[in-house]
Structure formats: C-alpha cells, structure tokens
Amino acid sequence: HVQLVESGGGSVQAGGSLRLSCAASEYTVRNNRMGWFRQAPGKEREGVATIAADGSTSFADSVKGRSTISKDNAKTTVYLQMNSLRSEDTALYYCTNLPDWGQGTQVTVS
What DSSP string runs through 51-84? Predict the structure, then answer.
C-alpha cells in the first residue's frame, strides 16, 4: 500500500481559494497517475482531477477552469489549487493512487 497524506483543507468564503497537498513517496509521485476525488454529504464520491506521470492533467467539468493540479517530484507532493470556490465544492477531498486512498481533508465553502 502507498501512504497518502492530505493537508490544506479548511473553511473559506465563496470566491476564495485553497491549495490542497498530498504527500506520498517519490516513486509514487514521479511514476504513477495520481488524482483527487471528493465526496459531499449524501453524494457519491466523484473524481476532481488527475495528473499523469508525464504531467498531463484532466479535470472534472465541475472544476475545469477553476482548478489546477500539479506535482513536485522532489517534494513528493501533489497539489490541487482551487479558485473561485463555490458552496457546491464543499466536500471531503481525497488524494488517490488507485487503489490506495488518503484519509481525506475537509473543504467547506460558505
């Protein structure tokens, strides 16, 4: 199993920004596709963004244009920058290197 540790969540007003971080091993960040999912209360878990080993990225339509995903191989960290946050972005955000998951970090937008 790969250990994934998220951080950076919090409470923010609508229109604000947050940067989530996911710490993993150097091998994992450098060589694997990694992603962010989220789960809001009463809703199914949904994909938010992914970043491949070569740095190519993909985004859910719900966050496209408002979010970026990046990685720092040296710091063995994957980042999710979210801007123009909306109330519907409120969720528990998980970092993934499937099939492994982090413990999640809460984002609350009011």
Answer: E-TTS-EEE-TTTTTTEEEEEETTTTEEEEEE-S
Model pLDDT, residue 13: 98
Beta bridge partners of 19: 81
- Residue 27 CA: distances (Å) to CA of 2, 23, 34: 10, 12, 12
Mean pLDDT across the chain: 94
**Contact 72/79 with Cβ under 8 angstroms?**
yes
H/E element, 38:
strand 34-39
